[in-house]
């Protein structure tokens, strides 16, 4: 019996490989067709401006003469640019640190309250406000006028509640009416007075509408007689509404000045103190015989406390950082809260069962486990604060703009805000790009590592 072996032949491999290559090539072409518009926009809006800025930084202000690295050298010789670098350093160190710390604390505390969602919404709401609107809000809040700026209104209210305030900052004495002004702003009688007398001390410069509501006419008090061992007097507004009256005399229509502090001084020392009543009268009893000088201390005429100069040269940078914290605290809290929700609860419960307190759990377990999230939040905020422009430009007034300037605002001011030196402005832009790139690369690597 003869067996015939039939060998099966497989189709050639070359045509199948060619088909796969054609399919891959077709897939790449289709992918490029869809990606091309995005690549075109990326090149037009990102790559070309970056390359143009780098090239422009090597030319002079007019853009016609090649100057090499002169713009970069000038950048580090310019006092305004050095101040911008210093302020940017303050921003990078202070703002992300405070925001990460506040976000961590708030994220932990929010977990322990009933209305956590509403609280998160309230804190995250400033993120919906544009930097322009936020800058206008805080420019008004920081206004030095207590009648406009809410912060100074609060500061002045607290100050006046504890330290008091003068009721007569505009009051002054008439020339030649028996009162002389001292160098410290106080007024004193030109001639000595003795017990047994009644002295009239007239002042002007106070509008009748500004008098305290409890002020009463001073005429009766000015006519009272004094006992031999006492010294009486009256402090009054030496002005008759509608005209008339006699200077230096308390007329019937002239009001006393209540709340005025009066001192009896002898040999340079204060022998007695008194405060005027509603009709402006005061009384010193049991004074020894001799001559005294009546003094109205400078505190009676001190200008009212105007609050804090939030937007002055010393505080303008912290004030702008405060506005930035208001906007971004909710962002940090939400991101850290998401990381906190993903923590293994068994580790926290095991620590509580071992007797660890809440502070120990927070410091030794919660913070180390949240380390990657905290790092991402911190680096993201560092990138953001390096580019801050709107808040600084809007909140800082013109006279202190240079004291608050950062690299982004300095770049704009040098290029378009009056400097008209786009060569130097381009060099500042390149510097800002070089500072941002390391943080961006670090953040991208962190994201890739977390995805793995």
Strand order of the largest sheet: 2-3-9-6-7
Query: How much strand?
Result: 5-15%
Number of helices: 15
Number of strands: 9
**Low-pLDDT windows of residues:** 1-7
Number of domain modules:
2
Q: What's the N-to-C terminus distance?
A: 65 Å
CATH class of the largest domain: Mainly Alpha
Structural class based on helices, strands and sheet pairing: alpha+beta
CATH fold call of the largest domain: MetI-like fold
Q: Biggest sheet, in brief?
A: 5 strands, antiparallel
* Average pLDDT metric: 86
Percentage of residues assigned to helices: 40-55%
Supply Rg.
Answer: 38 Å
Tell the overall outline. elongated
Q: Which second-level CATH architecture of the largest domain applies?
A: Orthogonal Bundle
CATH superfamily of the largest domain: MetI-like
